[in-house]
Write a structure and sequence with these properties.
Blueprint: E1 6-12, H1 17-34, E2 39-40, E3 46-50, H2 53-64, E4 73-80, E5 87-97, E6 104-115, H3 117-120, H4 123-126, E7 136-140, H5 149-157, E8 160-163, H6 173-179, E9 186-189, H7 190-194, H8 196-203, E10 214-219, H9 221-235, E11 240-245, E12 251-254, E13 257-258, H10 269-276, H11 284-293
Parallel strand pairs: 2-6, 3-4, 3-7, 4-6, 7-8, 8-9, 10-11
Antiparallel strand pairs: 1-5, 5-6, 10-12, 12-13
Helix pairs in contact: 6-11, 9-11
């Protein structure tokens, strides 16, 4: 069990990558001197989060709940493409004493404000800050600008792309654009994860649902589209979707017959993201559902 953390922070304006690396080393040294026992850099990944200003508060709050389960180096990338060509940084190293042991587990957060051209060509900035030989996860807040340099560059350095298609505006067409990336980077979709218990409830009805022609979903558009896509991909034929928008899934019917409500436990945004960070391989079921949803 982890107790209250020891934190060290640093802020710099118009800085270089070399300066960031020096300050990060200095912060780690400071936390080591102020806590009992050695610090363990037990990072299991580098976690990048692309968070435009409108998404920054939500992204920061979600990421704050990950340190204990997924100690990592987190890069929060805040683009400002219309600003001056500069790089501002906020660094934080938090070390958690491990109860019963004379050791501290440390996580690092590097928030980078990418101004001007740096927002359009971020790969050269983040690559020196990635931890060698560890997987790289990219959480993209909002709808990705498919085909744009900043998105394509960061996907090229990531092992897994994590999205939440309920944040997207151009559904269902965006699923087709996302599918073009499946052979280049593994993809997780938090909207898909939210449907898990409902998919389990539907699967229990097999083989009685083999002839289903229509699914009605009261819930978010993304969740409804993915459930319909999943059914189409599993049944190998067309299934009509009837959708009634709600904040979360409240009811599902198959050809007018209600599906037993899923026994879901409340999940925080941090819980949902944390689950995705446990997955490293491609998800063929999701890929098939997304293709059929689009």
């Amino acid at each position: 069990m982890l107790r209250n953390p020891q934190a060290e922070e640093w802020t710099g304006e118009n800085v270089s990558i070399a300066a960031i690396e020096r300050q990060l080393a200095s912060l780690r040294q400071s936390t080591s001197e102020e806590t009992e026992g050695p610090d363990l850099r037990t990072s299991v990944m580098t976690h990048m989060a692309w968070a435009p200003e409108d998404w920054l508060e939500q992204a920061t709050e979600t990421l704050s709940g990950l340190a204990e389960r997924h100690p990592s180096r987190t890069l929060i990338l805040v683009p400002d493409p219309d600003g001056d060509d500069r790089l501002d940084a906020e660094l934080s190293v938090r070390c958690f004493p491990v109860s019963g042991q004379h050791q501290n587990v440390c996580s690092e957060v590097i928030q980078l404000r990418l101004g001007g051209q740096r927002a359009r060509a971020p790969a050269s900035i983040v690559q020196p800050l990635l931890i060698a030989d560890l997987p790289v996860f990219l959480r993209w807040r909002g709808e990705p600008p498919f085909g744009a340099p900043q998105f394509e560059q960061l996907c090229d350095v990531a092992d897994r792309l994590v999205v939440d298609s309920s944040e997207w505006e151009s559904l269902p067409d965006a699923y087709g654009r996302l599918a073009e990336r499946f052979d280049h980077v593994a993809v997780s979709d938090i909207a898909w994860s939210r449907t898990l218990e409902w998919r389990r409830s539907i699967a229990k009805l097999w083989p009685g649902i083999a002839q289903v022609r229509a699914v009605s979903v009261q819930g978010p558009q993304a969740d409804a589209l993915l459930l319909a896509g999943w059914l189409r991909s599993r049944l190998g034929r067309a299934v009509e979707l009837r959708h009634d928008a709600r904040e979360k899934i409240a009811r599902i019917e198959l050809d007018g017959e209600p599906v037993a409500a899923a026994g879901e436990q409340p999940r925080t945004p941090s819980d949902l993201l944390s689950d995705e960070l446990d997955i490293f391989e491609r998800d063929p079921r999701y890929e098939e559902a997304a293709r059929a949803a689009g």
